[in-house]
Amino acid sequence: MQAWRVHRNGEPSEVMELEETDRPTPGDGQVLIAVRAANINFPDALLCRGQYQVRPPLPFTPGVEVCGETEDGRRVLATPALPRGGFAEYVVADEAALLPAPEALDDAEAAALHIGYQTGWFGLHRRARLQSGETLLVHAAAGGVGSAAVQLGKAAGATVIGVVGGPEKASIARELGCDLVIDRRTEDIVTAVKEATGGRGADVVYDPVGGDAYAKSVKCIAFEGRVVVVGFASGVVPTPGLNHALVKNYSIAGLHWGLYNTKDPAAVRACHDELTELAARGVIKPLISERVPMADAARAVQRVADGTSTGRIVVLPSGGTR
């Protein structure tokens, strides 16, 4: 079968190589899956660079989430077991962790529903306890992680403010349903948020960016606000001033979705049921900006790494379209 493999760490476009390799063999409790769609996530770029919290042995295949078909014909969502990730024609995954692919979504959309939307749901509902009528500030609102948070925030009845970089991404954020869009390149985030909220600030901040985005967020956080730290796409890990959190009376909550798979797998399944229902009702729908063939995967991962993509880019190893 064909699979993209990384033999040394570096930029995705330089270190990802498309190779012929053996089809993986399932171990105890695992199943073989024919990959129909593999969603690209920012962690795939970090894996290539050797900067992710998990460092699989070289060589490895990136790709942390897929929609595929099992040998008995089930259409499922899976997180493949590294070092044999999803940018391949076949993967193996733990049977117990498989989730049914929502019928309302095609393969690419289903693949993109998994980690990003689960992260958004747990971040907004379990960690931040977002309430209807509150104001949610989402950074990188036109990206894969941010777009999911925008849709889930609107579904929860929140007023959603999206922060983006550039007019093209601003247009996408508006189409996603943001009540207000702030272009960080031309507008001051703190001033805009305070003006939009009558000086109160944002009740919940969803931050997959870190760096300056975090610094600006805590300057416009509301009384008893909650900042959900999702990731550091900027490459800069903030160093929060806890005296500032004390004086302004806000909370900082970390969100590592992967831990729920081991600490509370029942919650993951319950979340998937709710996401499936929201998808069936048309309330959420992953924003797929590109569906690329297997041969273009490395270039696509590089665009995600460079921050030039919008929504989700999905690799179709076997031409899946459903």
Mind explaining what this structure looks like?
It is a single chain. The protein is an alpha/beta fold and 322 residues long. The protein has 12 helices and 15 strands. It has helices spanning 12-15, 42-49, 107-113, 115-127, 144-155, 167-176, 189-196, 212-217, 242-248, 258-263, 265-280, 297-306; strands at 2-6, 16-20, 30-39, 65-70, 75-78, 90-94, 99-100, 135-139, 159-164, 180-183, 202-207, 221-229, 251-254, 288-293, 312-316. Strands 3, 4, 5, 6, 7, 14 and 15 form a 7-stranded mixed beta sheet that branches. Strands 10-9-8-11-12-13 form a 6-stranded parallel beta sheet, with helices on both faces. A two-stranded antiparallel ribbon has the order 1-2. Helix 4 crosses helix 5 (144-155) and helix 4 (115-127) crosses helix 11 (265-280). The protein is globular and about 60 Å long. 50% of the residues are buried. The mean pLDDT is 95.
For the CA atoms, what is the radius of gyration?
Answer: 19 Å
**β content, as a range?**
25-35%
Shape: globular
Kindly name the structural category.
Answer: alpha/beta
Low-confidence stretches are none
CA distance, first residue to last residue: 22 Å
Largest sheet: 7 strands, mixed
Helix and strand sequence: EHEEHEEEEHHEHEHEHEHEHEHHEHE
Share of helical residues: 25-40%
